[in-house]
Amino acid sequence: MAMRFKWFLALAVFSSLISFAKFSHCEGSNWATPDQYIHACYSDLPSLFGDRGMVDNAWPYSSETKSVEYPVITGLVMYVTSFVAHSPISYFNLNAILLALIFIGMLLVVRKIRPQFAYLVPIAPAMIASLYINWDLWAIITMMLSIYWFDRKQYLYSALALSISISTKFLPVFLLLPIVFILWRQNKIKEILKYLLVTSTLWIAINAPIALTTPTGWWRFYKLNMERQADWGSLWLALQQLGLGLTNLNYLAILVLLIGMTSVAIFLFELKFTPSLASVAFIVLSVVMIASKVYSPQYVLWLTPLAAIALTNKKDLHAFWIWQIAETMYHVAIWQHLALVTNAHFGLPQGGYALITVIRIAATAYLVGTLVKRALQARNTQGSLLDLLFEASKPYP
Question: Which one of 68, 179, 291, 311 is at 20 to 30 Å from 224 when CA atoms are compared?
Answer without folding.
Answer: 179
